[in-house]
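Holo model, tryptophan. Inputs:
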Amino acid sequence: MPPPPADNPDNNRVLSGMRPTGRLHLGHYHGVLKNWVRLQEQYDCFYFVADWHALTTHYERPETMGEFVWEMVIDWLAAGVDPDKATLFIQSRVPEHAELHLLLSMVTPLGWLERVPSFKEQQQKLRAADLATYGFLGYPLLQSADILMYRAGHVPVGEDQAPHVELTREIARRFNHFFGRGGDFEGRAAASIERMGKRAAKSYRSLRRRFTEHGDRDAHREARRLVLSQQNIDAGEKDRLLGYLEGRGRAILPEPQTLLTEAAKMPGLDGQKMSKSYDNIIALRDDPGRVQRAIAAMPTDPARVRLTDPGDPDKCPVWQLHRVYSDFDTRAWAAAGCRAASFGCLECKRPLIDAVQEEQAMFHERARQYENNPARVREMIEQGCRNARRAAAETMEMVRAAVGAVYR
Ligand code: TRP
Ligand code: SF4
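Output:
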């Protein structure tokens, strides 16, 4: 899956987070973690435990957090997320997230937050919890702070989270609009233009004029390309020239792109979406015996009462599982055998039991070294938090300067 072009093609930073809400299951693996593992090979990935986000909806049960956090991190490692390739950390251990959240809140119109689709939806869905709170309203803004803190170019999320990334883009734009013009912006832009060299400076000026005075999109595109290809100026100056081009000030906080995860829909044991709240999960680190029993007990097409009754795979949750786990030949075998009633459902399930157990054998193998060594997990996360904090400190230095909160 080639990623869409980033706003700035040089931006190789990926950021994503997950709330610690319990043991992860195969839905998380196929929906999210597999993708994280793929991305860590190619991008500078930051993955974090969104513990404060969990608290916005589960503040009545804070005791679950500690345990869930460590179990979830082990699940990540079991899935193949590699601390040598990606930076893994815990949100609350990088308190800069709270500071950025606060500063962003200064320019965030209430209406923007009230209009985020998940706000009303979740409030209605989770009626048991009182979500008429300041913290919950700010949920997507905290997420924006998470993303903007690392100046991430790409945010891999499922469709439900896309509006949060969209909000992040709007917040970044608004922040840059208010705070990106300080410190003699125009004068500095002029100096950066000169530093590109005579020829490039001349074309930049003429392209900018074509864009700002005549709305010429081609000129805009060409000017961007020109700026990004310059060798003589650094990334900060490029930001400034892109901002100057568009008349919006410097991009202190760059706008991220959504990296939509198109995942196979992972069915639960009953054919509904796999989810802890439906009690239909196979946990990432279930033992082989439970996997065997759970799949064997899965309901199938109700038309197949007797062995000789033909069935229809499209009416069977097991078939959904074949679509995730089986290759073409196995699927053809299963579908044909189902329609011709040439075997029973248990036989149809056997390759799936094998496939899931095989996949999990790998998870168990990776997890073992950590399960027996909690200190190692703690240490690895400590290191990740240190790295994340260093990156966060850089952004906050710029942000504090931009809002004028620097006192020397
Ligand atoms: N809201 C996300 C979820 O529920 C978790 C999350 C928090 C996140 N901060 C983030 C995801 C930043 C991506 C980027 O899944
Ligand atoms: Fe489902 Fe397979 Fe049984 Fe058909 S044979 S009903 S696909 S389990």
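The first strand starts at residue 13 and ends at 18. The mean pLDDT is 92.
Archived with the compound record.
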